[in-house]
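Notebook entry, structure prediction.
Reason for the run: the old model in the group folder had no record of what sequence produced it. Starting over properly, with the input documented here first.
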Amino acid sequence: MELRDKVAVITGGKRIGRVVAQHLADRGMDLVLTYRGSQEEAEHTVADVVARGRRATAVNADVSRPADCSAIIDQAVAAYGRVDVLVNMASVYRSKPIDAVTSDYWDADMNVNVRSAFLCAHAALPHMRRNGGGRVVNIADWLSRSGRPNYRGFTSHYVAKAAIIALTEALALELAGDNILVNAVAPGPILPSADMSEQDIANAVRAIPVGHWGGEAEIARLVAFLCETDFITGETMRADGGRHLL
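New structure, fully documented this time:
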Protein backbone atom coordinates (compact mmCIF):
# COMPACT_ATOMS: atom_id res chain seq x y z
CA MET A 1 0.00 0.00 0.00
CA GLU A 2 1.28 3.43 -0.89
CA LEU A 3 1.46 5.43 2.35
CA ARG A 4 1.68 8.99 1.06
CA ASP A 5 -1.41 11.05 1.93
CA LYS A 6 -2.86 8.19 3.95
CA VAL A 7 -3.88 8.43 7.62
CA ALA A 8 -2.52 6.34 10.48
CA VAL A 9 -3.83 6.03 14.02
CA ILE A 10 -1.20 5.11 16.62
CA THR A 11 -2.30 4.22 20.12
CA GLY A 12 0.52 5.26 22.44
CA GLY A 13 2.72 8.06 21.17
CA LYS A 14 5.79 8.02 23.42
CA ARG A 15 9.19 6.28 23.32
CA ILE A 16 8.97 3.77 20.45
CA GLY A 17 5.58 5.13 19.37
CA ARG A 18 7.10 8.56 18.85
CA VAL A 19 9.73 7.20 16.47
CA VAL A 20 7.11 5.14 14.63
CA ALA A 21 5.08 8.32 14.14
CA GLN A 22 8.12 10.20 12.83
CA HIS A 23 8.92 7.37 10.42
CA LEU A 24 5.39 7.19 9.02
CA ALA A 25 5.30 10.97 8.66
CA ASP A 26 8.52 10.76 6.67
CA ARG A 27 6.66 8.42 4.33
CA GLY A 28 3.96 11.03 3.83
CA MET A 29 1.30 9.97 6.32
CA ASP A 30 -0.91 12.12 8.53
CA LEU A 31 -1.12 10.91 12.12
CA VAL A 32 -3.63 10.61 14.93
CA LEU A 33 -1.97 9.78 18.25
CA THR A 34 -3.58 8.70 21.48
CA TYR A 35 -2.45 9.27 25.03
CA ARG A 36 -3.85 8.72 28.48
CA GLY A 37 -1.44 10.27 30.97
CA SER A 38 1.36 11.61 28.81
CA GLN A 39 -0.13 14.65 27.08
CA GLU A 40 3.15 16.54 26.93
CA GLU A 41 4.93 13.66 25.20
CA ALA A 42 2.04 13.25 22.77
CA GLU A 43 2.20 16.95 21.93
CA HIS A 44 5.93 16.65 21.29
CA THR A 45 5.20 13.84 18.84
CA VAL A 46 2.57 15.97 17.11
CA ALA A 47 5.18 18.71 16.76
CA ASP A 48 7.62 16.18 15.26
CA VAL A 49 5.08 15.23 12.62
CA VAL A 50 4.14 18.82 11.80
CA ALA A 51 7.83 19.69 11.45
CA ARG A 52 7.98 17.03 8.74
CA GLY A 53 5.25 18.76 6.76
CA ARG A 54 2.41 16.42 7.71
CA ARG A 55 -0.71 16.86 9.83
CA ALA A 56 -1.13 15.36 13.29
CA THR A 57 -3.43 15.48 16.26
CA ALA A 58 -3.39 13.94 19.74
CA VAL A 59 -6.48 12.43 21.35
CA ASN A 60 -6.87 11.73 25.05
CA ALA A 61 -8.38 8.28 25.44
CA ASP A 62 -8.53 5.16 27.56
CA VAL A 63 -8.15 2.45 24.92
CA SER A 64 -9.56 -0.23 27.20
CA ARG A 65 -12.99 1.44 26.83
CA PRO A 66 -15.11 0.78 23.70
CA ALA A 67 -16.50 4.33 23.61
CA ASP A 68 -13.02 5.84 23.69
CA CYS A 69 -11.78 3.56 20.90
CA SER A 70 -14.73 4.52 18.73
CA ALA A 71 -14.12 8.19 19.52
CA ILE A 72 -10.47 7.92 18.43
CA ILE A 73 -11.45 6.61 15.02
CA ASP A 74 -14.34 9.07 14.68
CA GLN A 75 -11.99 11.97 15.43
CA ALA A 76 -9.48 10.72 12.86
CA VAL A 77 -12.18 10.56 10.20
CA ALA A 78 -13.57 13.96 11.20
CA ALA A 79 -10.12 15.55 11.05
CA TYR A 80 -8.65 13.87 7.97
CA GLY A 81 -11.49 12.09 6.22
CA ARG A 82 -10.19 8.54 6.46
CA VAL A 83 -8.31 5.87 8.41
CA ASP A 84 -5.93 3.62 6.49
CA VAL A 85 -3.55 2.27 9.12
CA LEU A 86 -3.98 1.33 12.76
CA VAL A 87 -0.88 0.69 14.87
CA ASN A 88 -1.87 -0.77 18.25
CA MET A 89 1.08 0.26 20.42
CA ALA A 90 -0.69 0.96 23.70
CA SER A 91 0.76 -1.47 26.21
CA VAL A 92 1.58 -2.03 29.84
CA TYR A 93 4.75 -3.88 30.86
CA ARG A 94 5.14 -4.87 34.49
CA SER A 95 5.86 -7.88 36.64
CA LYS A 96 4.45 -9.42 39.79
CA PRO A 97 4.81 -12.87 41.39
CA ILE A 98 1.86 -15.06 40.47
CA ASP A 99 0.64 -15.33 44.08
CA ALA A 100 0.28 -11.55 44.17
CA VAL A 101 -1.58 -11.24 40.87
CA THR A 102 -5.17 -10.20 41.60
CA SER A 103 -8.07 -10.40 39.20
CA ASP A 104 -7.94 -6.59 38.83
CA TYR A 105 -4.23 -6.71 37.98
CA TRP A 106 -4.87 -9.48 35.45
CA ASP A 107 -7.79 -7.62 33.88
CA ALA A 108 -5.77 -4.42 33.57
CA ASP A 109 -3.02 -6.23 31.65
CA MET A 110 -5.53 -7.90 29.36
CA ASN A 111 -7.53 -4.72 28.83
CA VAL A 112 -4.59 -2.54 27.80
CA ASN A 113 -2.58 -5.15 25.91
CA VAL A 114 -5.31 -7.13 24.13
CA ARG A 115 -8.80 -5.70 24.54
CA SER A 116 -7.65 -2.30 23.27
CA ALA A 117 -6.22 -3.79 20.06
CA PHE A 118 -9.50 -5.55 19.32
CA LEU A 119 -11.65 -2.54 20.16
CA CYS A 120 -9.62 -0.12 18.02
CA ALA A 121 -9.48 -2.54 15.10
CA HIS A 122 -13.22 -3.17 15.34
CA ALA A 123 -13.91 0.57 15.25
CA ALA A 124 -11.56 1.16 12.30
CA LEU A 125 -12.73 -1.67 10.05
CA PRO A 126 -15.78 0.03 8.48
CA HIS A 127 -13.66 3.00 7.45
CA MET A 128 -10.90 0.81 6.03
CA ARG A 129 -13.44 -1.17 4.04
CA ARG A 130 -14.91 2.06 2.71
CA ASN A 131 -11.43 3.07 1.50
CA GLY A 132 -10.84 -0.26 -0.23
CA GLY A 133 -8.51 -1.71 2.39
CA GLY A 134 -6.10 -0.93 5.18
CA ARG A 135 -3.42 -2.23 7.49
CA VAL A 136 -3.43 -3.17 11.17
CA VAL A 137 -0.14 -3.65 13.01
CA ASN A 138 -0.19 -5.00 16.55
CA ILE A 139 2.64 -5.18 19.07
CA ALA A 140 3.40 -8.60 20.54
CA ASP A 141 6.57 -9.72 22.33
CA TRP A 142 9.53 -11.87 21.31
CA LEU A 143 8.98 -14.28 24.20
CA SER A 144 5.35 -14.97 23.33
CA ARG A 145 6.30 -15.27 19.66
CA SER A 146 8.98 -17.81 20.64
CA GLY A 147 6.59 -19.84 22.76
CA ARG A 148 8.55 -19.69 26.01
CA PRO A 149 7.85 -17.44 29.01
CA ASN A 150 11.52 -17.49 30.11
CA TYR A 151 11.13 -14.95 32.94
CA ARG A 152 9.14 -15.47 36.13
CA GLY A 153 6.72 -12.81 37.27
CA PHE A 154 5.34 -11.87 33.86
CA THR A 155 2.45 -14.32 33.57
CA SER A 156 -0.27 -11.84 32.65
CA HIS A 157 2.01 -9.96 30.23
CA TYR A 158 3.12 -13.16 28.49
CA VAL A 159 -0.45 -14.41 28.15
CA ALA A 160 -1.67 -11.04 26.87
CA LYS A 161 1.00 -10.88 24.19
CA ALA A 162 0.31 -14.48 23.18
CA ALA A 163 -3.32 -13.43 22.77
CA ILE A 164 -2.19 -10.55 20.53
CA ILE A 165 -0.55 -13.09 18.23
CA ALA A 166 -3.77 -15.13 18.13
CA LEU A 167 -5.82 -12.00 17.50
CA THR A 168 -3.50 -11.00 14.67
CA GLU A 169 -3.90 -14.38 12.97
CA ALA A 170 -7.67 -14.52 13.41
CA LEU A 171 -8.23 -10.98 12.13
CA ALA A 172 -5.91 -11.60 9.19
CA LEU A 173 -8.06 -14.52 8.09
CA GLU A 174 -11.32 -12.64 8.60
CA LEU A 175 -10.22 -9.50 6.77
CA ALA A 176 -7.97 -10.63 3.93
CA GLY A 177 -10.88 -10.52 1.49
CA ASP A 178 -11.36 -6.83 2.32
CA ASN A 179 -7.70 -6.05 1.52
CA ILE A 180 -7.12 -5.35 5.21
CA LEU A 181 -3.83 -6.99 6.15
CA VAL A 182 -3.12 -7.65 9.82
CA ASN A 183 0.35 -8.35 11.20
CA ALA A 184 2.28 -7.93 14.43
CA VAL A 185 5.76 -6.93 15.52
CA ALA A 186 7.39 -8.82 18.39
CA PRO A 187 10.09 -6.59 19.90
CA GLY A 188 12.97 -8.01 21.88
CA PRO A 189 15.73 -5.93 23.48
CA ILE A 190 14.98 -2.59 21.84
CA LEU A 191 15.54 -0.10 24.67
CA PRO A 192 16.85 -0.54 28.22
CA SER A 193 14.21 0.20 30.81
CA ALA A 194 14.66 3.24 33.03
CA ASP A 195 15.30 1.14 36.15
CA MET A 196 18.17 -0.88 34.66
CA SER A 197 21.66 -0.38 36.05
CA GLU A 198 24.72 -0.15 33.82
CA GLN A 199 25.56 -3.70 34.84
CA ASP A 200 22.07 -4.90 33.92
CA ILE A 201 22.39 -3.24 30.52
CA ALA A 202 25.80 -4.80 29.91
CA ASN A 203 24.51 -8.24 30.92
CA ALA A 204 21.57 -7.86 28.54
CA VAL A 205 23.85 -6.95 25.65
CA ARG A 206 25.89 -10.10 26.22
CA ALA A 207 22.71 -12.12 25.75
CA ILE A 208 21.93 -10.55 22.35
CA PRO A 209 23.64 -12.44 19.50
CA VAL A 210 24.13 -9.27 17.41
CA GLY A 211 25.77 -7.61 20.41
CA HIS A 212 23.70 -4.44 20.83
CA TRP A 213 20.24 -3.09 21.61
CA GLY A 214 17.96 -2.63 18.63
CA GLY A 215 16.78 0.95 19.06
CA GLU A 216 13.38 2.41 18.24
CA ALA A 217 14.12 2.80 14.52
CA GLU A 218 14.15 -0.98 14.05
CA ILE A 219 10.52 -1.18 15.16
CA ALA A 220 9.57 1.89 13.11
CA ARG A 221 11.04 0.40 9.93
CA LEU A 222 9.29 -2.90 10.51
CA VAL A 223 5.95 -1.21 11.15
CA ALA A 224 6.32 0.80 7.93
CA PHE A 225 7.18 -2.37 6.01
CA LEU A 226 4.06 -4.13 7.30
CA CYS A 227 1.97 -1.10 6.32
CA GLU A 228 3.41 -1.07 2.80
CA THR A 229 3.18 -4.80 2.04
CA ASP A 230 0.39 -6.01 -0.21
CA PHE A 231 0.86 -9.72 0.45
CA ILE A 232 2.03 -10.49 3.98
CA THR A 233 -0.74 -11.04 6.53
CA GLY A 234 -1.19 -13.01 9.73
CA GLU A 235 2.51 -12.81 10.59
CA THR A 236 4.20 -11.90 13.87
CA MET A 237 7.72 -10.76 13.06
CA ARG A 238 10.41 -10.75 15.75
CA ALA A 239 12.86 -7.87 16.07
CA ASP A 240 15.13 -9.23 18.76
CA GLY A 241 18.69 -9.33 17.45
CA GLY A 242 18.59 -13.13 17.46
CA ARG A 243 17.74 -13.28 21.18
CA HIS A 244 15.26 -16.12 20.57
CA LEU A 245 18.06 -18.34 19.28
CA LEU A 246 19.67 -18.73 22.69
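Summary: The chain is about 45% helix and 15% strand.
The old model has been moved to the deprecated folder.
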